[in-house]
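so my prof wants the structure for this chain in the tokens format not the other one, which i didnt know existed until like an hour ago. anyway here's the sequence
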Amino acid sequence: MFSLFLKGGPIFMAVLTILFVGIFFAAWKAPQWVKEIGIFALAFGFFALFSGLRQMFEFIQNSTEQIQTSVIGAGLKVAMIPVLYGLIIYMVSLIIRIIQKPRM
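here's what i got, hopefully its the right format
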């Protein structure tokens, strides 16, 4: 798991982890913020994706030799890690909201 954390970009993954912890804190202290934190985590994951894709395309553009498709596939795989983490955080926020929803 720690290797995925490092591959996904330590800065992006650290911010997403803080948001993940923030969801549980918000569920305890400010339940109305759970949805917003989850949406922000998902959006931040997509921001990390686009940042990773930009770096990958910049590497391809500046490369003087032929790029193999395995390099592109590996770059896409690594760029998707923060998006998946953000999606997991968003799903946890939805589950917390369902649990906290008042029964009628």
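also thought this was worth mentioning. The CA atoms of residues 56 and 75 lie 6 Å apart.
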